[in-house]
């Protein structure tokens, strides 16, 4: 297992290198520059700016300098948010995204599992239809609509919640609902679909015939075997939710990572684009790795393919 | 009858011998159905799924024909009739430039559905091939392909979209290409997860032992068995493509006005939701209704496809 | 059971997460002084405002990119920093300069030398006195190459300012010198009668040498900021909010009415509007939040919102280097086929003034009259569909075109620009029978495309840097200006504008400017003006002297609350 994780880790570093290169090239290929402004300044001023941020050097040199700094753990300073360190911007905004992200992931998994299990256990009965329709409705309304409607009804009309911000625990409620509606539905459907299969499989029938109680079957055997696709899904969900949702962050004025990323791209703030991309990729890769490990833990039938590489 | 009985005697040529085959008599048989007939039958008997199908058909028909038969078009302004509430003249009201929302909603349906379906199919195609190969072979192939997918997935999507919109003319094709560049990866990962689970199952091993080629095993045995999760994912991919277009509109990278999509209309409508609710209501309702239809139909399809649920 | 382990881990993570949330909450509250806890009063739902000190709360759409006077470039920064810094002069809300750090000033007879006498009781927040040396240091710093200031050109009025910026002169040669601790002598390249307004601009604000030297990041954090204005930066939570508190050592502390200001960063206009309606902020408008355009007519009608003209112009650029808009008749036809009042009434809805020229009504002229009062623009051109059709036909003939070539209207992504563009192409479709293609681009791409001249018509807007007509003429229609993206070029206009710099008196200067403007906009239709901007503002009752200034930026620093 340790060897497997180490090996994965090496691959991650390699991927990261390719990603950095690709993003660096892409970012410089996109028109616009961090130093442009609507009102034209003099050519000399533009030159001074370029010299200051090292953008007057050939691209390959800039790339080299960036890599060198990166290896030393220096993500640089933002070119648009003057003299704010990139790692600090990411750290500050990630706190918000992480808190909101974890709350909504747990909400999604818990509520999604409950709905899914109910559906599977009462397959083709009223409760199944009811919870599935509920789930599908959650999946059908875009967060672009849910968020402002919730905000208007619950925060402006009856003032039960704050319109914006993330200061008190109650403030998490609206963004969490908007953020997890779709993933609740998705998890519920995944659980239901695999669980129905599992409940019809031989080993469950065996368990039943051995006289194991219904709920124990669900908990001990069925759920565990139904978790696999959910674990896969959690891999993406983690990366997507934790790194922030631009729409939700904008509507509820939450200074999360998603907001800063969109901002960095439209500002062409090169160091910030690179920094957030790298950070995002690391999160993504780690959650993929965790998902892979969780696979093994959840389903003993899967052997780690990496372990066989030495054969 | 009467004439026969009058003719009297029973003759031997009135009988044919029963073919007494001991193998045949052991057979328990129901009417033979091909797999597709079987699926269709099961689908037809699923009321919710059929409702979804009908909604889809109606929405598609309206999207095709309503703009043709409407006496208004989606782009002509009428500045003396802005923000009119629904009436006999304008069934869905008018927007801030006095354009008929009925015409715009169905023009928007055309655009959104086209984007969603085409992008969904592209994702399905690449996802299944890539994910199937990745999951089945495992080991180094998986490692390499997975790395590639991960890098692609982690490249800042916004940069890719902005670059594409600059390199290619801003158009529907560009938006679909932009969405497909990374869209298929989710599908590929779902398929991969299924492959990893299924490839060690008895029927796959048996097929292998009997000398079947890898491609045959993947596409004949494993993919059909993984169809459940794939279809569930597909029913999410089409809506998510439609949502992605809405998100791109949110960032101003969607379809160019005055062409509308549901996404652009919702974005416009949300801003005036409190005073001109119909501007949000109609596009949001039909978008959600369509999403609902896709989802319940997808569920039904999954049930129908799944041989394990045959009862 | 492995699953149980995973599940319990997940639960633990959640708990940790919620604890984290709770902790940082406590930290916020613990971090700020208990007596005047800003986050507590912000967060508490019960409106306990009566007990808390006089506070003004407003939003900004994005975080100030910098609060370093030399590096500031935008309205957001200047709104915040106008509370933190004090320059030689300060513009009142009408845009006229009033004494601030400078008690008085005088210009030499040739208008080339200014002498400012500074007050001796102004202090930096670190206790140092504010002296003329600070100004000398700050101006030279803003000009220095290694500072890399975008707005260094604001200081090119100084003798050798531009040369020092390009490395051709030394700092000593720059025309600013502290001749005593409280006397500043400034030498200018040309007579600049509005120089006393210019020094109110943020690029001319002072910084404290000991706080700034060798510490470029000094202005990115509340703890390292050293300022000299009516307020102190108490807290800056990046991306979230800024909290300012009254500076007890400000020389004119009696004039400062607010005890604190809380500025939250909220991008979405509907959210800002909701915050106002739930009494979480006191002000919307003038670059500090925006009233959603659909809400404007209703709010104005109910008397809840006010409309004020500001010194900005909304216009469309013609690409004068390319067919078909290289032809003046076609340009005129397009301008004549637009119904500006209809766009204002139905699309922008904020009672803007239809524009036929570039200099907005709130820009000053001379002798107490505004520039537009002296030189009205109504006669520059007219809206006339029949005439437009005729001109279009003639123009096409002159260019040898039998049908209108495919042309793009370029604008940057925003709801407002989109609606105007859609209305405009619809008017051209109906009135001229011409179908234009719309192309919206995201900001960075848009600027580059426009600069490269890859458009037929492009959206543009210009806001005042200082209160003078030259800012709307030289910058926009002079062939050498970097902002003339339509590449309009008329030597006669250039000559008049160049001449205005060496004019000896204000009347003849304005006269030359107005002549240039008339040629460019009336005879040549260099660009197509659409309207002069307004700003829609809303404020809670009880606030005094919180206004939109002439340029449309929130002016709050010397306001008060009853």
From TrEMBL, chain A:
UniProt-annotated location(s): Cell membrane
Membrane topology: Multi-pass membrane protein
UniProt-listed Gene3D superfamilies: MetI-like
PROSITE patterns: ABC_TM1
Pfam families tied to this protein: BPD_transp_1, BPD_transp_1_N
Transmembrane segments: 100-118, 130-152, 172-191, 230-252, 272-298
Any one GO biological process: transmembrane transport
Keyword list, A-Z: Cell membrane, Membrane, Transmembrane, Transmembrane helix, Transport
Protein family: Belongs to the binding-protein-dependent transport system permease family.
Gene Ontology cellular component annotations, sorted alphabetically: plasma membrane
Protein name (database record): ABC transporter permease
């Amino acid at each position: 297992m340790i060897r497997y994780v180490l090996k994965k880790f090496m691959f991650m570093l390699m991927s990261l290198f390719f990603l950095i290169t690709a993003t660096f090239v892409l970012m410089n290929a996109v028109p616009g520059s961090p130093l442009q402004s609507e009102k034209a300044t003099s050519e000399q001023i533009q030159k001074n700016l370029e010299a200051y941020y090292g953008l007057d050097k050939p691209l390959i040199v800039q790339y080299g300098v960036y890599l060198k700094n990166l290896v030393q753990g220096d993500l640089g300073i933002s070119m648009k948010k003057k003299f704010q360190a990139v790692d600090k911007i990411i750290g500050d905004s990630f706190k918000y995204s992480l808190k909101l992200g974890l709350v909504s992931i747990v909400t999604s998994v818990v509520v999604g599992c409950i709905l899914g299990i109910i559906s599977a256990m009462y397959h083709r009965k009223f409760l199944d239809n009811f919870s599935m329709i509920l789930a599908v409705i959650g999946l059908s309304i875009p967060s672009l609509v849910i968020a402002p409607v919730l905000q208007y009804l619950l925060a402006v009309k009856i003032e039960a919640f704050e319109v914006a911000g993330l200061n008190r625990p109650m403030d998490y409620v609206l963004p969490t609902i908007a953020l997890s509606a779709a993933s609740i539905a998705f998890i519920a459907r995944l659980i239901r679909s695999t669980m129905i299969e599992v409940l019809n499989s031989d080993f469950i029938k065996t368990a039943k015939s051995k006289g194991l109680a219904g709920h124990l079957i669900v908990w001990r055997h069925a759920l565990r075997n139904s978790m696999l696709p959910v674990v896969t899904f959690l891999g993406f969900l983690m990366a997507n939710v934790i790194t922030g949702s631009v729409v939700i962050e904008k509507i509820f004025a939450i200074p999360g990572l998603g907001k800063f990323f969109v901002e960095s791209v439209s500002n062409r703030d090169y160091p910030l684009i690179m920094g957030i991309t790298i950070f995002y990729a690391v999160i993504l890769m780690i959650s993929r790795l965790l998902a892979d490990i969780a696979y093994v833990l959840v389903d003993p039938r899967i052997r780690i393919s990496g372990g066989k590489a030495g054969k | 009858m009467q004439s026969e009985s009058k003719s009297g005697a029973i003759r031997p040529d009135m009988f044919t011998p029963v073919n007494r085959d001991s193998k045949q008599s052991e057979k328990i048989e129901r009417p033979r159905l091909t797999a597709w007939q079987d699926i269709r039958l099961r689908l037809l008997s699923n009321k919710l799924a059929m409702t979804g199908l009908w909604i889809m058909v109606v929405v598609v028909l309206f999207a095709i024909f309503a703009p043709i038969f409407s006496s208004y078009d989606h782009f002509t302004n009428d500045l003396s009739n802005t923000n009119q509430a629904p009436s006999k003249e304008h069934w869905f009201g008018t927007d801030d430039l006095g354009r008929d929302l009925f015409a715009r909603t169905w023009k928007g349906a055309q655009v959104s559905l086209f984007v969603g379906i085409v992008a969904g199919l592209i994702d399905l195609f690449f996802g299944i091939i890539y994910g199937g190969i990745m999951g089945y072979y495992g080991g180094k192939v998986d490692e390499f392909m997975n790395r590639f997918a991960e890098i692609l997935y982690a490249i800042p999507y916004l940069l890719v979209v902005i670059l594409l919109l600059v390199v290619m003319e801003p158009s529907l094709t560009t938006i679909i290409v932009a969405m497909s560049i990374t869209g298929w990866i989710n599908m590929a990962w779902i398929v991969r997860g299924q492959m990893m689970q299924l490839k060690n199952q008895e029927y796959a091993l048996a097929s292998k032992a009997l000398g079947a080629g890898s491609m045959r095993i993947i596409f004949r045995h494993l993919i059909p068995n993984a169809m459940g999760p794939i279809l569930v994912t597909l029913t999410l991919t089409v809506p998510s493509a439609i949502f992605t277009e809405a998100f791109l509109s949110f960032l101003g990278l969607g379809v160019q006005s005055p062409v509308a999509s549901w996404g652009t209309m919702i974005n416009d409508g949300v801003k005036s939701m409190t005073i001109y609710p119909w501007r949000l209501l109609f596009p949001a309702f039909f978008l959600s209704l369509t999403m609902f239809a896709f989802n319940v139909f997808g569920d039904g399809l999954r049930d129908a496809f799944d041989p394990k649920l045959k009862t | 059971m492995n699953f149980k382990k995973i599940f319990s881990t997940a639960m633990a993570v959640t708990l940790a997460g919620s604890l984290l949330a709770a902790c940082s909450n406590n930290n916020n509250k613990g971090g700020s002084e208990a007596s005047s806890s800003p986050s507590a009063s912000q967060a508490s739902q019960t409106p306990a405002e009566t007990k808390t000190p006089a506070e003004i709360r407003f939003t900004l759409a994005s975080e100030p990119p910098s609060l370093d006077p030399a590096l500031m470039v935008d309205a957001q920064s200047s709104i915040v920093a106008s509370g933190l810094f004090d320059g030689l002069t300060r513009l009142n809300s009408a845009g006229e300069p009033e004494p601030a750090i400078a008690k008085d000033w005088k210009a030499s007879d040739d208008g080339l030398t200014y002498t400012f006498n500074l007050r001796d009781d102004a202090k930096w927040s670190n206790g140092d006195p504010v002296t003329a040396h600070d100004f000398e240091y700050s101006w030279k710093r803003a000009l220095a190459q290694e500072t890399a200031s975008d707005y260094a050109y604001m200081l090119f009025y100084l003798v050798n300012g531009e040369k020092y910026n390009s490395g051709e002169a030394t700092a000593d040669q720059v025309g600013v010198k502290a001749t005593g601790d409280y006397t500043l002598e400034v030498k200018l390249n040309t007579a600049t009668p509005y120089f006393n307004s210019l020094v109110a601009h943020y690029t001319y604000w002072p910084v404290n040498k000991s706080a700034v030297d060798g510490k470029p990041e000094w202005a990115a954090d509340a703890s390292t900021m050293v300022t000299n204005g009516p307020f102190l930066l108490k807290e800056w939570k990046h991306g979230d909010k800024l909290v300012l508190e009254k500076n007890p050592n400000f020389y004119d502390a009696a004039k400062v009415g607010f005890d604190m200001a809380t500025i939250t960063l909220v991008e979405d206009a509907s959210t800002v509007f909701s915050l106002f309606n739930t009494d979480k902020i006191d002000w919307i408008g003038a670059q500090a939040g925006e009233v959603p355009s659909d809400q404007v007519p209703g709010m104005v009608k109910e008397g809840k919102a006010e409309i004020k003209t500001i010194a900005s112009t909304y216009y469309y650029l013609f690409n004068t280097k390319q067919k078909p808009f290289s032809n003046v008749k076609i340009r005129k036809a397009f301008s004549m086929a637009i119904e500006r009042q209809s766009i204002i009434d139905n699309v922008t809805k904020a009672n803007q003034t239809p524009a036929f020229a570039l200099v907005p009504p709130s820009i000053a002229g001379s002798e107490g009259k505004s520039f537009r009062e002296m030189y009205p623009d109504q006669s520059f051109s007219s809206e006339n569909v029949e005439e437009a059709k005729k001109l279009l036909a003639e123009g096409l003939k002159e260019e040898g075109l039998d049908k209108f070539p495919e042309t793009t209207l370029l604008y940057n992504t925003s709801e407002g620009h989109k609606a105007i563009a859609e209305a405009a192409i619809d008017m051209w479709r109906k009135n001229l029978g011409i179908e234009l293609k719309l192309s919206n681009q995201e900001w960075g791409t848009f600027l580059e495309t426009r600069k490269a001249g890859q458009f037929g018509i492009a959206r543009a807007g210009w806001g005042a840097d200082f209160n003078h007509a030259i800012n709307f003429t030289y910058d926009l229609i002079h062939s050498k200006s970097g902002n003339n993206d339509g590449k309009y070029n008329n030597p006669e206009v250039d000559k008049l504008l160049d001449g205005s710099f060496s004019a000896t008196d204000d009347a003849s200067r304005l006269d030359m400017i107005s002549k240039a403007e008339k040629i460019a906009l009336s005879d040549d239709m260099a660009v197509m003006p659409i309207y002069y901007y307004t700003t829609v503002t809303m404020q809670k009752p009880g606030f005094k002297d919180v206004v939109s200034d002439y340029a449309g930026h929130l002016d709050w620093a010397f306001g008060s609350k009853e």
